[in-house]
Please model this.
Amino acid sequence: MTEHVVLRHRDIEGLDQLDTYLDNGGYKAFESIVRKKSPQQVIDLVKKSGLRGRGGAGFPTGVKWSFLTPDVFPRYVVANADESEPGTFKDREIMERNPFQFLEGVAICAYAAQANAAYIYCRGEFWDLAQELDRKIEELHARGLLGRKLFDSKYSLEMFTHLGAGAYICGEETALLESLEGKLGQPRLRPPFPAAEGLFAKPTVVNNVETLTNLPPIINRGAKWYSSIGTEKSTGTKVFSVSGNVERPGNYELPLGTTFRELIYDQAGGVPNDLSIKAILPAGASAPILPATDEVLDTGMDYESVPKVGSSLGSASIIVLDETVDIAWVLSKITDFFEHESCGKCTPCRDGTYWMKHIFDRLVDDTAQPHEIELLHSVGIGIQGKCLCALGEFAALAVTSAVERFRPEFELHVVEDSSKAA
Amino acid sequence: MLKDNHTQEIEGILAKYPPDQKRSAVMPLLFLAQREYGSLSPEAIAEVGDLLGLQSTEVASLVGFYTLYHDREGGKYRIQVCTDLPCALRGAQAFADELCDKLDIKMGETTPDGQVTVEEVKCLAACDRAPMFQLQEPDGIHYHEDQSVGSALALIEALRVKGQVD
Model:
């Protein structure tokens, strides 16, 4: 692919400067919808484009917007910039290098949702980035691209950044809203969904940074153009974050449906020292682990195909594990992560991740008993389907799938079964 | 007092949220208090609570929940190394351990001059540029990527000089 849709800064130098962005068609999309289109027309256009949420769930964006409770105001739009999934580092590049396209996307979403205020919830670690976004927001005000009565219409919009303070769970949209209200970042019971009762109990749209950044090109070039990229049900491009054992880790924007093989070998330069790949984590720490068979490597990375080989695309953070990597160690790292990040609200996740961590401590220490592999698996199964949010689910998926698919790797770490020896 | 020394900044923070939703300002105000006092003592927590009409216990629960708030004093400069899976695959654990060795401290400890604490943290969304760490210091949080032990030590040296002057 030669042209970027989201990572346009790679094609146009200086795109993070407002003048350059405007010279390259910036804010034409926002101006045109405010002048000529109704919010409903924008929602219909985005529905037609097939755009799906890029934060991990893959839910159709226009459909999500259409769930807003009618006639209840004020409404809010929240950009989810809490990027914290191990292996995901795309939103940061977008906001640092192509910030105005992102901010224009937020504005388009706000207009469609008939919201007059939008919050950008950045993870607290993005301190420098949030300050830079504040400066960009001021610039937009000065140019009349934000504020009251935009483009001589009745529509007004304000934007604010809000910093988190270190909690993975705040990427979950209802936990994010709690955090934005000044509370512990713990997920809410649903329904009501944010579209009915979100921020300050008002109808709210929460969208991921990459999702929002797709909006200006969709408005400018049309739904048909967008849906001609990618596959039938997974339209458009995706920014794939590649990390782990590859020559050139980084972000690669490619059409949805591109195969793992093309991404890892053609784009990211393959595996150092010509080692073979043992396994792939296609969605960071949050999805089942895949053995790197030819079938998997030739699978298209889209929302339909990855589940067919037993995992999911999530936010498309591909962690590559070469043949020398110990899978039990990999899962111990992942379990450490979730044990630390569990918000503590639901017992299966809070206690289950704690138990799994302790079993892993013994496994990597080579002191686990043989029955503990099965125990690990059963704790994982015990977490699944019993928590308020997906974090509990995520915490168990990689572990249970690894025990099922890579069992011999775990058996290397247990002490000998003395009863059998006798 | 924050109220007297940072009146304008506090007003600016409160103006971001609807007038009846002041509580949303608690996290930015905690960052402000931490910048002012170095860490969040019970007195600092109570002061933030008073600004918003919140109980100290409510504010303290946030300090306990979110990892970027510190209720105990540490080094003036916190070197927070990501050792999560993608970084670990690129040598972050060895980097963190060797850095501690060179500073003659254990992970999580502070150098005897009180300047530098080294901590392990979870994913910082910079997996392609490991080893990396964030520097949490009084005036904010900054990323340092593609690091070696040598480059980290050079930065720490510069911080120590700066820390003594400030």
